[in-house]
Design brief:
By secondary structure, the protein is of the alpha/beta class. Helix content is 29%, strand content 16%. Helix 5 packs parallel to helix 7. The longest helix is centred in the N-terminal third of the chain and has 17 residues. It binds alpha-D-glucopyranose and calcium ion.
Length: 570
């Protein structure tokens, strides 16, 4: 494997709208981000991913871009963006932006031109198709509900949108469009951007015959990802994109990829892959419902443990994946992956440890480092997210009561991750002096940065120790390049444990997700404890802080929600 500059980095996702508001309009902004760069530096962050900050009507919170070359006024100016780049650079941090090029906003100039003349130059930037017998060209359902096809008024045409109708899909078959996109990507990279998080990219390849698929819901439609899974050739586009842009700048790219075809991982993230890395969503997929959020299963611990082990094994030969417990599209990890009794500061530290020390590039989502949780939602009107409103209606149509539909949204809504960052116990969690655009999680008086700064045992200070362990001179190599090997997985316990090993070192990460203490018989003698989230009984022998070796029969006792990171004899 060829070593790359980003292999040993730790990344952090900022959702700009909810990070920090500097001017009291209730919307987070670039000035707010700049003022917290030192905070991120102290957290051990090297790469900052900004969710979209481009000009946008915000139908899908900036994932609907109306000008790829402009900063949304809500967030600030291009000068402020340049300042962010230079301030990050001063601190040896890298900025990456979201790259949303499967679709743009219906307000984008290209689409406005296309609407005026669907048969003209810009019409070919999108997919306009004639209806079939007065119906949509085929029966695909968009990710946000309803048909993927929107009629163009006063014509017999429809245009394709795999997400909201305000997000028309760009026609990647058109070389002119591709050139426009490469020019734009290079423009940002030349500005000093370190790379991109690449949105919904698998969707860029369409089956141009636009066939019908067997209906999978009462609406007679079929999920549009079925087309994505059935069509070949996305690799040609991705390869060209990389060759023409990222590769010329040694950029770091992390792709959002669902529905990849089997056996393709190496093409995506191998040494000369389309991307540097892509997110590992395998654990998240465990709680995706067959029809929607209303029939989504809860996480089963053993299945989750198994899934992570399998995923780590499958990627080992290809490259690196990016590990997350949450992002702006997912509910909070603490609320999702931890049993009720573990939704505590100890549990948050445990989950963070298990995730951050996996093989791969760790991504921390804003607020994760203080253990933020899902919010409390009293009515559907409190949500803003377009996807949540759709899922609410799907639940009602499936016969759920209002309360049941709301409960499903409360558990799964993307807005759980989008509530304002909790900076302090002051009004609006110190996020804004105005009216926040989305309601603040009422638990901000209990969970916030300011309180945690002054508490050595806080989740925040624990995360700082965790990132500094991962990056420490002595252990960086093993945490970056060491192998992953599952340990102690047993149907009778709720222990999530694994080794990270190389020729010199063997590190055991062991966490007890169960409600009762467990005792593990160590397989390799312990050398030293590197990190733990509790001060309670730890090693059964009396040498718990010792650097001396212990005999191999020594045991490790873990309380409920306890995690221990320990170096063992090789
Ligand atoms: C990605 C984004 C999500 C957005 C969608 C459409 O999945 O992460 O937030 O809604 O793409 O752009
Ligand atoms: Ca603002």
């Amino acid at each position: 494997m060829i070593k790359k500059w980003w292999h040993d980095k730790i990344a952090y996702q900022i959702y700009p709208k909810s990070f920090l508001d500097s001017n009291g309009d209730g919307i987070g902004d670039l000035a707010g981000i700049i003022s917290r760069l030192d905070y991120l530096k102290a957290l051990g962050i090297d790469i900052i991913w900004l969710s979209p900050i481009y000009k946008s009507p915000f139908v899908d919170q900036g994932y609907d871009i109306s000008d790829y070359y402009a900063i949304a006024e809500e967030f600030g100016t291009m000068e402020e963006f340049d300042l962010l780049l230079s301030e990050a650079k001063k601190r040896d941090m890298h900025i990456i932006m979201d790259l949303v090029i499967n679709h743009c906003s219906s307000q984008h100039e290209w689409f406005q031109q296309a609407l005026k003349n669907p048969y003209g130059e810009y019409g070919d930037y999108f997919y306009f198709r004639k209806g079939v017998n007065g119906h949509e060209p085929n029966n695909l359902r968009s990710y946000f509900g309803g048909s993927c096809w929107e009629p163009v008024p006063d014509t017999d045409l429809y245009y394709l949108h795999m997400f909201a109708r305000e997000q028309p899909d760009l026609n990647w078959e058109n070389p002119k469009l591709r050139e426009e996109l490469y020019k734009m990507v290079n423009w940002w990279l030349e500005k000093g951007l370190a790379g991109f998080r690449i949105d919904a990219i698998i969707n860029i390849k369409k089956d141009l015959s636009f066939p019908d698929f067997p209906a999978d819901g009462p609406d007679g439609l079929a999920a549009c990802w079925k087309m994505v899974e059935s069509v070949d050739g996305v690799g040609d586009f991705l390869d060209e994109l990389k060759e023409r842009t990222f590769k010329c700048h040694d950029a770091f790219t992390v792709a959002e990829v669902f529905n990849m075809q089997e056996g393709e991982l190496g093409n995506f993230i191998g040494d000369d892959g389309y991307f540097s890395t892509m997110f590992d969503f395998s654990a998240h997929c465990l709680s995706f419902g067959e029809h929607g959020w209303y029939d989504a299963p809860p996480i089963d611990f053993r299945q989750w443990r198994q899934t992570i082990a399998e995923s780590q094994a499958s990627v080992a030969q290809c490259g690196f994946e990016a590990n997350i417990i949450e992002n702006h599209d997912e509910p909070r990890g603490v609320s999702r992956f931890l049993p009720d009794y573990a939704q505590t500061p100890a549990g948050a530290k445990m989950l963070g440890t298990v995730s951050l020390l996996l093989r791969g590039i760790p991504f921390i989502y804003q607020g994760q480092e203080i253990g933020m949780q899902n919010s409390v939602w009293n009515s559907i009107d409190e949500f803003n997210d377009i996807n949540t409103i759709d899922q609410y209606n799907i639940a009602l149509q499936a016969g759920m009561s209002d309360a049941q539909a709301l409960a499903a949204c409360s558990l799964h809504s993307r807005d759980n991750a989008r509530t304002p960052m909790q900076w302090s116990s002051e009004e609006n969690a110190g996020f804004t002096t105005g009216q926040p655009w989305l309601k603040v999680n009422p638990n901000y008086t209990e969970i916030n940065v300011a309180d945690q700064e002054s508490d050595v045992d806080s989740v925040l200070n624990y995360y700082r120790r965790l990132t500094s362990l991962r990056k420490s001179a002595d252990y960086k190599e093993v945490f970056t390049y060491g192998d992953f090997e599952p340990a102690f997985a047993d149907d009778d316990n709720m222990v999530m444990a694994y080794y990270r090993t190389n020729k010199e070192k063997r590190i055991l990460i062991a966490a007890n997700f169960g409600s009762e203490p467990v005792e593990l018989v160590l397989e390799y003698p312990a050398k030293r404890v590197l990190l733990r989230n509790m001060h309670s009984g730890l090693l059964l022998s009396d040498s718990r802080d010792s650097t001396e070796s212990m005999d191999s029969t020594s045991g490790l006792k873990l309380d409920s929600c306890e995690v221990c990171v320990m170096e063992c004899q090789i």
